Amino acid sequence: MRAAPRWLLLVSLLVALLLGLLPLPATLQPMRPYWIALVLAYWLIEEPDRIGLGMAFAIGLVADLVNGGLLGEQSLRLVILAFIVQRFRARLRFFPLLQQALTIGALLLNDRIVSMGLHLALGEPTLPPAFWAAPVVGMLLWPAVFLVIDGLRVGSWRR
Questions:
Q1: Tens digit of each residue's pLDDT (9 = 90 or more) over 20-32
Q2: d(C-alpha 12, C-alpha 40), whole Å
Q3: C-alpha angle 5-8-13 in degrees, rounded to nearest 5
Q4: Checking phi first, is residue 123 left (phi over 0); if not, alpha (psi -120 to 50) or beta?
Q5: What residue segments make up the domains of the chain, in order of their start?
């Protein structure tokens, strides 16, 4: 089986980073899906030899620098997510898309718990209740994210 071109991996991560920077109204901001986690999860499931914990850490550092957040916060969150996805990849890969979406939703909820724990440990302000809706939004978007990237990845093999 041929691997997808490296540019597709990099472009998809860049697009996810840019989607995370798009301005949203203040009321919708806490519900912003964690785009980088969704794209990272796709690549971890479909091509685990291309991306791993080190790449997740590096992507998190870049995201922290771009977003101006606490340096290392997203790195920690993405490494935890990547570890769990790698650990259960054999099962996740063969789940139907809707079951994958539920699993991704649980992973995104775990990410929010880690984020909340970090905020509490560092004495940061508490997060709004809408903050907990973001994993649901990510779960609902998972099938679309999966199908778009998978279509590009499989289509690129034929060229």
A1: 999 999 888 889 9
A2: 9
A3: 140
A4: left
A5: 32-157
How big is the chain by its Cα radius of gyration, in Å? 15
What is the C-alpha to C-alpha distance for residues 123 and 121, in angstroms, rounded to an integer? 6
pLDDT tens profile 90-149: 999 999 999 999 999 999 999 999 999 998 998 888 778 888 999 999 999 999 999 999
pTM (whole model) above 0.90: yes
Q: Which stretch of DSSP H or E encloses residue 91?
A: helix 89-92
CB-facing half-sphere around the CA of 49: CA atoms within 13 A? 6
Compute the distance between CA of residue 155 and CA of residue 37 in angstroms, rounded to an integer.
23
CA 76 to each of CA 1, 5, 22: distance values in angstroms, whole numbers, following the listed order: 32, 27, 23
